[in-house]
């Protein structure tokens, strides 16, 4: 039963909508305030300082475009692969910050989050990663631009 | 199949990167992608820190302001006597009241938990951005202070 739900294309469609909406929402605050997002990245102390601004500029746009693609079902597989990898990246950053006991905010949605990183963020990102993996494996393009394009081409 | 997925992903990443860099180039509050020496993000960070002994000397100087950048809960559990609590993440809310009466050229020293936390540096950065010119960071922070068995004060009210 659970296996059937997990492998269901309808579930993949729901996953696409959830992930797409989350990543679009998460990107907007960061795009509007890149300097604050740069600070959030810097606080993790994982990247060389000289590369922080570059990632602060491009990461939110990758989230936004991948989220949009996932939502409308354009390049669903490619965009879900990106979102799975991004979730894995964020998961790694959170684990590393938790292990090092860093006293920082997540910077996941708004760059000026007050709450500090805790185990909840780990669970949340793990859920996002699993959902993205489900979409990647089981999505069959229900209500997707991919399918629409395919149909038009085959006519 | 995987090759197609990877190709699609790379395409999306390149497209997003292109748009991101283009918009960053034209937007008014663009981020500098130049090396750190010219990036505003790192201004005031190098040579901004002071050691425990320097911190002790500065404490003796009248008019020196000590700001604790940790959370109100941590501050309540124990802080350096004389310090005021200005959590980095609550800067915009609390700064007006905490910084009231402090002159822009007055010496301010920030601290947080210790070497592993960056809130003191970040707070110092915000203070400098807001016009305070003599801001230093006691890098060893609370950990070094307590390691030297220095006196502490408990309670939530700012001294």
What are the key terms here?
A: 155 residues; mainly alpha; 7 helices; B: 159 residues; alpha/beta; five-stranded parallel β-sheet; elongated
Question: Would you mind describing this structure in some detail?
Answer:
The complex is a heterodimer of chains A (155) and B (159). Chain A is built from 7 helices and no strands. With 155 residues, chain A is mainly α. Chain A has one domain (2-153). In chain A, α2 crosses α6 and α3 (34-44) crosses α4. By secondary structure, chain B is of the alpha/beta class. Chain B is 42% helix and 10% strand. Chain B has helices at residues 2-26, 52-60, 72-77, 91-98, 119-129, 141-147; strands spanning 49-50, 65-68, 84-85, 108-111, 135-138. Chain B has a 5-stranded parallel beta sheet. In chain B, α5 links the parallel β4 and β5 (135-138). In chain B, 31% of the residues are buried. The chains are: A mainly alpha (155), B alpha/beta (159). The A-B interface holds A 33-35, 38-39, 42-43, 45, 49-50, 52-54, 56-58, 60-62, 64-66, 69, 75, 77-79, 81-82, 85, 100-105, 112-114, 116, 136 and B 4-9, 11-13, 15-17, 19-21, 23-24, 29-33, 35-36, 39-42, 70-71, 89-90, 112-113, 116-119, 122.
């Amino acid at each position: 039963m659970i296996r059937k739900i997990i492998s269901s294309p309808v579930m993949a469609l729901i996953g696409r909508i959830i992930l797409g909406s989350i990543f679009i929402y998460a990107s907007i605050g960061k795009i509007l305030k890149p300097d604050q997002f740069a600070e959030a990245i810097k606080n993790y102390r994982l990247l060389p300082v000289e590369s922080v601004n570059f990632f602060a500029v491009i990461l939110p746009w990758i989230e936004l475009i991948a989220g949009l693609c996932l939502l409308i079902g354009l390049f669903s597989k490619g965009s879900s692969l990106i979102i799975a990898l991004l979730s894995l990246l964020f998961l790694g950053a959170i684990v590393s910050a938790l292990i090092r006991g860093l006293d920082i905010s997540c910077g996941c949605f708004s760059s000026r989050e007050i709450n500090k990183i805790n185990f909840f963020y780990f669970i949340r990102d793990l859920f996002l990663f699993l959902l993205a993996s489900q979409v990647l494996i089981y999505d069959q393009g229900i209500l997707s631009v991919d399918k629409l394009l395919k149909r038009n081409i085959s006519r | 199949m995987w090759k197609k997925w990877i190709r699609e992903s790379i395409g999306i990443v390149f497209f997003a990167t292109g748009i991101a860099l283009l918009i960053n180039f034209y937007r008014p509050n663009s981020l500098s992608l130049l090396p750190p020496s010219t990036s505003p993000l790192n201004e005031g960070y190098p040579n901004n820190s002071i050691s425990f002994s320097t911190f002790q000397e500065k404490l003796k100087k009248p008019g020196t302001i000590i700001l604790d950048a940790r959370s109100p809960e941590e501050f309540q559990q124990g802080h350096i006597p004389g310090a005021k609590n200005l959590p980095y993440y609550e800067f915009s809310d609390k700064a007006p009241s905490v910084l009231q009466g402090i002159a822009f050229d007055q010496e301010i020293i920030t601290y947080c938990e210790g070497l592993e936390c960056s809130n003191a540096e970040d707070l110092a950065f915000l203070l400098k951005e807001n016009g305070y010119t003599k801001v230093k960071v006691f890098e060893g922070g609370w950990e070094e202070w307590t390691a030297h068995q220095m006196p502490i004060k408990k309670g939530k009210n700012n001294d």
